[in-house]
């Protein structure tokens, strides 16, 4: 998008000289408070709104140069309340664009069935009508319908903002999975900064008056907000949230204070730690106990302190590890493998050091880039 | 003699079932007038209502014209037109059509206006042409309301088509007009009963049309 402006006849400027390069095959999120022009920006891409000034190029070609219906049919479009056709069954809703493109009924329906599976909808829902589906299911149908003709570009206008937080998280995970499989170029509008950070490869923060405040990958947004507006919009805990982008794989784990349920008196005394993590026969965590309270051969799992939610090094971020440590009554986080067996424990201090060294590495990277 | 006696006497008289003044013939004429008037009114009301409803323009003008048209007395209009144009089918059709256009026009306009805007936005965003949006997205959802407009227009036409008899045409109004003239109240009540029955049949026809034409996704059952 090159210096695009949308000015309404009454003089209101919805989008002001916005320039944005949207990378192929990734998710670009437009985020900002209401009235910042993010939806207008999105709708200019499929010409639901025509810009007053500036040009929008798609693969180097001005989008004004092809017929508007051709342009729109090459872009999937998902809106807030799904906007399903209530008089059509789910399968026919999804088959809409293929039918418009002249596909046969059978082929279009087969494609629709394939997409239902891809977005995680039960095939039994195919013959239902939209009113018989929950909000989350309707939104999945909306995504499937947008993907039906396999468009290279997907425009999503606050698609998940009308569903409850649990369903929203499911839909977000699903979108990331679909994106992994299909590699579409997705432009996603939201007012929810957490959603933006979770989904975006690049995040464009917009401010009231339709101006771009910052355009950066989410990690950079959190570490280096361009100005007070962006910093304020990111919220108070951006430091904590930034930890989501640091891996926990390099944390130094210790197995010293880990003992089995049938530990001997010697095993209990040996580590010399304040607290010991007791595991069951399979190596799964049971809970914490002070050495003085534990009797060899008679450790009662019910009397142990809870161990909190363990994290998986490599899969979870430093944020998850820190969260485990903060939640743990002993201040130690429990690390487990994918099967839930304890691989070690790590203290808040160790996590703190890891955070400091991750920040230092980050700064070193930046210095390298700028020099 | 009470009304029920009139009714049974009228319908049991075999003379009323044959010939050019028989019940089948008059019923057929009445249905023909009504269908013609409804078709003409729909041909005017539906396209204008659909178009104004889709674009959202002209709603106020529409409401004004509809209210004005409703205020015209059908019988007075008929007499006026007959004086101006002479006898015939056309002078009868004009007041009936003027009577039927407003309910069709206004409900069609309202029906299309009140369609949820988000499917329309989605359809436009996926590259559907405006005519297709109107016929494949808005119309199916607006259909129940549009049918109700057609239904009330049809009922009004059926009951008002009796005035055709005043200008020497046929239809069930014949019994009422002639009966009054001849002081044959059996005939008057019989004719009125037939009009009422025809109105009920009209209701049933529209109910069946609704069952057949409206998608279960819109009916929600």
Automatic annotation (TrEMBL), chain B:
Residue ranges crossing the lipid bilayer per the database entry: 31-50, 157-177, 189-209
SUPFAM superfamilies hit by this protein: MetI-like
This protein's UniProt keywords: Membrane, Transmembrane, Transmembrane helix, Transport
Domain ABC transmembrane type-1 per the UniProt entry, residue ranges: 27-206
Pfam family, one: BPD_transp_1
Topology in the lipid bilayer: Multi-pass membrane protein
Family label: Belongs to the binding-protein-dependent transport system permease family.
Protein name: ABC transporter permease
Top-level taxonomy: Bacteria, Bacillati, Actinomycetota, Actinomycetes, Kitasatosporales
């Amino acid at each position: 998008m090159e210096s695009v402006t949308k000015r309404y006849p009454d003089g209101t400027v919805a989008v002001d000289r916005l320039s944005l390069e949207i990378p192929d095959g990734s998710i670009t999120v437009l985020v900002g408070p209401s009235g910042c022009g993010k939806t207008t920006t999105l709708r200019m891409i499929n010409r639901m709104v025509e810009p007053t000034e500036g040009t929008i190029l798609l693969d180097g070609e001005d989008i004004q140069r092809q017929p508007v219906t051709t342009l729109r049919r090459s872009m999937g479009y998902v809106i807030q309340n799904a906007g399903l056709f209530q008089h059509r069954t789910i399968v026919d809703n999804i088959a809409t664009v293929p039918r418009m493109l002249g596909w046969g009924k059978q082929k279009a329906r087969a494609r629709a069935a394939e997409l239902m599976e891809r977005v995680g909808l039960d095939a039994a829902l195919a013959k239902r009508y939209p009113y018989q589906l929950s909000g989350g299911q309707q939104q999945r149908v909306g995504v499937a319908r947008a993907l039906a003709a396999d468009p290279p570009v997907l425009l999503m206008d606050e698609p998940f903002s009308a569903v409850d937080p649990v369903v929203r998280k499911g839909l977000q995970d699903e979108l990331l999975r679909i994106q992994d499989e299909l590699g579409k170029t997705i432009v996603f509008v939201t007012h929810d900064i957490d959603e933006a950070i979770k989904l975006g490869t690049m995040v464009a923060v917009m401010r009231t008056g339709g101006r771009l405040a910052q355009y950066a990958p989410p990690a950079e947004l959190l570490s280096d907000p361009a100005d007070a507006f962006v910093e304020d919009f990111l919220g108070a805990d951006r430091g904590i949230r930034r930890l989501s982008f640091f891996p926990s794989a390099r944390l130094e784990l210790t197995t010293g204070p880990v003992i089995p349920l049938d530990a001997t008196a010697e095993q209990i005394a040996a580590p010399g730690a304040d607290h010991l993590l007791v595991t069951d026969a399979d190596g799964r965590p049971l809970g914490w106990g002070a050495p003085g309270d534990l009797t060899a051969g008679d450790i009662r799992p019910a009397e142990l302190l809870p161990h909190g939610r363990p994290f998986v090094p490599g899969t979870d971020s430093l944020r998850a590890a820190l969260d485990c440590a903060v939640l743990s009554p002993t201040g130690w986080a429990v690390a487990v493998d994918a099967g839930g067996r304890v691989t070690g424990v790590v203290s808040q201090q160790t996590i703190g050091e890891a955070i400091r060294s991750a920040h230092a590495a980050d700064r070193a990277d930046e210095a390298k880039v700028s020099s | 003699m009470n009304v029920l006696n009139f009714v049974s006497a009228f319908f049991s008289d075999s003379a009323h079932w044959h010939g050019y003044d028989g019940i089948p013939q008059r019923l057929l004429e009445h249905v023909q007038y009504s269908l013609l008037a409804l078709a003409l009114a729909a041909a005017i009301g539906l396209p204008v209502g659909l178009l104004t409803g889709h674009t959202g323009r002209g709603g106020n003008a529409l409401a004004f014209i509809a209210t004005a048209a409703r205020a015209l007395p059908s019988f007075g209009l008929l007499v006026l037109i007959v004086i101006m144009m002479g006898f015939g089918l056309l002078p009868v059709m004009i007041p009936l059509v003027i009577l039927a256009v407003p309910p069709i026009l206004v409900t069609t306009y309202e029906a299309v206006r009140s369609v949820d805007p988000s499917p329309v936005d989605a359809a436009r965003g996926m590259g559907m042409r405006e005519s297709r949006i109107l016929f494949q997205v808005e119309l199916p959802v607006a259909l129940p309301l549009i049918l109700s407009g057609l239904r009330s227009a049809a009922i009004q036409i059926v009951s008002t088509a009796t005035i055709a008899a005043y200008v020497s045409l046929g239809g069930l109004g014949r019994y009422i007009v002639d009966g009054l003239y001849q002081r044959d109240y059996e005939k008057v009540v019989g004719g009125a009963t037939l009009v009422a029955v025809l109105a009920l049949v009209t209701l049933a026809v529209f109910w069946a049309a609704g069952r057949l034409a409206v998608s279960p996704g819109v009916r929600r059952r």
